[in-house]
Amino acid sequence: MNKQSFLFLFLLGVVTFSTAQKKKITLEEIFGGEFRTEYMDVLRSMNNGTQYTILNTSRSPRSSSLDKYDYETLQKVETIVASSDAVPYFSSYSFSDDESQVLLATEVEPIFRRSRLGIYYVYDIASKELVKISEVKIQEPTLSPDGSKVAYVLDNNLYVMDLAERTTKQVTTDGNKGTIINGVTDWVYEEEFGFVRAFEWNSDGSKIAFLRFDETEVPHFSMDVYGTELYPSQHEFKYPKAGEKNSIVTLHMFDVASGAISNVDLDGAYYIPRIKWMHNPDHLSVQTMNRHQNNLKLYDVNAKDNSVSVLFEETDAAYVDIDDDLTFLADDSFIWTSEADGYNHLYLYGRDGELKNQITEGPWEVTSYYGYDEKNDRIFYQSVENGSINRGVYSISSKGKKKKELSTEEGTNSAAFSSDFTYYINTYSSATTPYQFTLHNASNGKLIKEIKDNSALENKLEGYQIAPKEFSTINVNGYDLNMYMMKPADFDPNKEYPLFMFQYSGPGSQQVANRWMGTRDYWHQLLVSEGYIVACVDGRGTGLKGRDFKKLTQKELGKYEVEDQIDAAKKLSELSYIDEDRTGIWGWSYGGFMSTNCILKGNDTFEMAIAVAPVTSWRFYDTIYTERYMQTPQENPTGYDDNSPFNYPELLKGKYLLVHGSGDDNVHVQNTMRMIEALVQANKQFDWAIYPDKNHGIYGGNTSLHLYTKLTNFVKENL
């Protein structure tokens, strides 16, 4: 044996011994909170810009307090209000605009993903007086700008309470479950347009603009709730599936002084996804869209007479995204984000809707807009300028000049700014660094103070087998697709390993990102420690690589994305250390739709697939999401059916596991039941599991542990 061979064997032995000394992650540790990441408490900057507030809570003894801190020192200055015999335990809060009153939420219970019911109180900071808004649970209470009144929704009607007089006025009277909703959104608006409160105070508190939803003609949806009683019950609500009728949504204006309600004519607008008052209390901005969501209009509504004018219009061959970036400056000129030049960028428009200038530009995307410092003419934003898997924080003038990169660490950076843009708290992580929280000077990004890190978690993980994510690109179907791969700690390039692929693949999504691990990443680490190679590829249709790349899948969801996963798997199987006869894929929701299609259309490539809570036909999913990308089934029947996996169950050859929660209000268990029936009639054997009353996330109690134990066993037994 020569010296080089001896040295190689010696080093291999050292690595093997070192690996053997490290522990493998277990499911019990993952779901028992052993690797829980420490986060910053949610803070809100105060109007003075030098202080912020944090809600501090304790489980034992159960208590809560709203505390004020100083940015410069990070030290607590005072407690504004704390739970006591006189003040109930509260789980969230909000200030009036002048910070004289605090709205406290208690006894909160969820309705759907974002909507909540609760008992709410208003606390007057100066007098320390506590006022209960309603004896019954209400939705979305919101203080008027001066804190003198609070508007809220109860049983689909809008109410206004005068805090000084202790009187409550019912504004609308036609609200009724399943027919009319005033002031809050219906299910599909909440889920897909991402908001619940559908009313807004103007800047002087004299008017409230609100949306009214008439869902009378929306098809009725119900699902069994098994619970613990002798008979199951029915959970019922209106859910518009692709091609079906939506709520008729209208805009109305309530005059607080007179009590009069007037209607605003928006020329038959189909969707009203955003309303927002300008600084001028007599002017309301309204965004409307057509059913295809490829034509957006921004209206200016004059609240004095409800006259309407179009500020500007944006169209797209595919669709126009809705976001919350619209910002009105002091003169009601405004900042807007758009993909007009092929990438998502910031634009400045005049009060009259005329374009002044494009603020940011380049072959990269703005991913978050943080705000505008008018005093110093600085716009703050997050983007992927330093690579589509990274995020950086930047500032730039409204003319697109004097750009500064404020964050310097490669990975994922995000920022929370003080109200006067003097400071920001940076949240940073990467694939190798858990979350770190630091205080910075907003003018130059200079570090002021380290706040919190996850060094304890980092040190703990030193004792475990943790495989690094190896980031790269893979050229598939003419595109360089972002990819990561994770290999066992004792990886030997002369051996062959099974390949297990993970993806989501939905429009505009991203899984290949340089950020810290989540629950599924820890599960992937467990599989890697058991000898599997885990890989993830973001195919066509995913986000942050430009408009054309993202919208390429328009009208064909499940076609190009599936081709990319199949071809990526084939290309990876050409590597000498990949066993081409042991290739699996899995995903959740859209990812489950993908993995199901992959094992059918790619039955010569994939030997195994897992689908959790999958869509199996876009005909079963909601109007706003589905029609944005597919138009209606009546207009695009082949787009829906050619990529619906239960239309070709006979293609199944490999091992397939199908999992769903029976209480999923989002992707209904109907999707899985139809897939099951198709496979049964095709006489195809497969495995499946239904989790009673569990929603789209399939969690609660030991549910997650049970689910991932099932997934782990399925991988080990079939790949």
From TrEMBL:
InterPro entries reported in the protein's UniProt record: AB_hydrolase_fold (IPR029058), Pept_S9_AS (IPR002471), Peptidase_S9_cat (IPR001375), Peptidase_S9B_N (IPR002469), Serine_Prot_S9B/DPPIV (IPR050278)
UniProt keyword list: Hydrolase, Protease
Dipeptidylpeptidase IV N-terminal domain mapped to chain residues: 96-435
Domain (Peptidase S9 prolyl oligopeptidase catalytic) ranges: 525-719
Coiled coil spans: none
PROSITE patterns linked to this entry: PRO_ENDOPEP_SER (PS00708)
PANTHER family: DIPEPTIDYL PEPTIDASE 9 (PTHR11731:SF193), PROTEASE FAMILY S9B,C DIPEPTIDYL-PEPTIDASE IV-RELATED (PTHR11731)
Protein's name according to its UniProt entry: S9 family peptidase
Organism: Flagellimonas aurea
